[in-house]
Amino acid sequence: MRKTILLKAIALLLIISSCSDDDDGQDLIDFTVNFSSETVNASEEDTTSEITLNFSRSASEAGTITVAYAGTNAEYGTDFTTSPDGASGTLSIPVAIGDQSASFTFTKLEDAIEGETKSVTFSIDGFDNTDWSQGATASTLVSFTPIAATSGVVDSENGGATIPNQVYFDFSSATQTTVQRDTWEIALYNGAENHVFLNSALAVSAVELIGVTDLLAITETSNLSEPMELMGLNAMFQPEPVTVNTVSELLEGLPVSYNQYGNLDEGISFTDNPEGTLEDTAFSEISTTAEENYVYIVSLGNEIPIEEELEESIEPGTINTSGDHRGFLKVRILSDGNSYTIQYADLAETESYNEVTVSKDDAYNLTAFSLTNGETVSVEPTKEQWDINLSGVFAYYGDSGGLVAGLTYSDYVVHNNLGGAGVYQVIVEGDAPTYANFSMDNVEEASFVFNNRSYIGTGWRQPYGGPIYEDRYYVLKDIDGNYYKFMFTAYTSTEGERGHYQFTYERL
């Protein structure tokens, strides 16, 4: 009898609790509004800037945010305008139910003259909803001349649980550049040497056919000039030798997967090294002697799944980043030292091939190229204008816990090693300062890692979609000598959807 009464009491409490949550929203955190950055650069090249206000959670009701402004040597209508219109002295920013942020557009009409300070400070002035409040970053300064950003909270635009986008972020300008990760397969190095990189965010891989210079002579039925002695995994995920004699056999182990072939002991990998250095890329260094450049078969990676077309919806906290395989192409790349010539064709093609020449551009680390569209693609910003890349997906052939195979990671972050950025991690233990207490006096120059883009990786979160580590953060030194500390605070939305990274940063 006592047990029955106890069970009924528990059930009643659950019903009361459920009704309380539904009726009065007590489970919602406070709704606060912050500018995404304390500073924004309105450079000569950019006439418009999108200024973002981030919310602590999705809006549960509609409303309006009022933003005021004050100019230094800048007048509305003469030096700048905004959208929504701010001629009255304030802007009214609408918020709809479900919004996680809001924004307005700043348009620069006149540049600052040499030696002149010109800026506009925007401040949160109020709300038409009494339950809303200002966050810690209640204003932002838009400068007409370049200044290094001081701090901010960044919500990345990676796009959700299929992680369709790569995001490049530059701390000093507080800007993120978004590019869909399936718009390119290879990238050409613009430095003094001649190198080709693969799109690791799309799981692109490539194998060199030693001695083969005739692109049209190779088809799926071709025999290799000599057998390749590789390693693979059997059905029990144990390594075993694999001898490959034909192109068709080679294709079985070329795409990135647990079944990918390789032989690390012999230096054979069909992906670039995870460190992102010029050494140990899948493509050998491109020679200026044409006869020394051989044909490659390139696996084009995997489609980005379209969530609306999936048979089952992606549950909160989970991801689906790899769709159908995109096929293979045969590729040969030449160089004269100042440009690259890319020859490529379908694997079955024996009559003709496509050829495109791409000049080097030393403003960029890499020039991306789409083999599927036959054109260069704007991907990376200039080498001085990005520090970290929230790649979302990252693939390479390597060793993980003793399993040597093609590995794919999600929620992955790399830094601009080719552009000269350095980074290191601080774990709060012993005498190490907390994130809040870390200052320029705590910077350890010898700790910066400049030659390994994968240093950050997934080291900021626990494995298998686990929570973010709260005991660590990162210190970054950019190419201009600015120092920043930054810490990841989320990689899901407030509704639990993966692919929404958030981090906070501060210039030291």
Automatic annotation (TrEMBL):
Signal peptide location: 1-21
Membrane-crossing segments per the record: none
Keyword field contains Signal: yes
Top-level lineage group: Bacteria
Statement: the UniProt record of this protein carries the keyword Signal: yes
Keywords of this entry: Signal
Cross-referenced InterPro entries: CalX-like_sf, HmuY
Protein name (record): HmuY protein
Organism: Allomuricauda ruestringensis (strain DSM 13258 / CIP 107369 / LMG 19739 / B1)
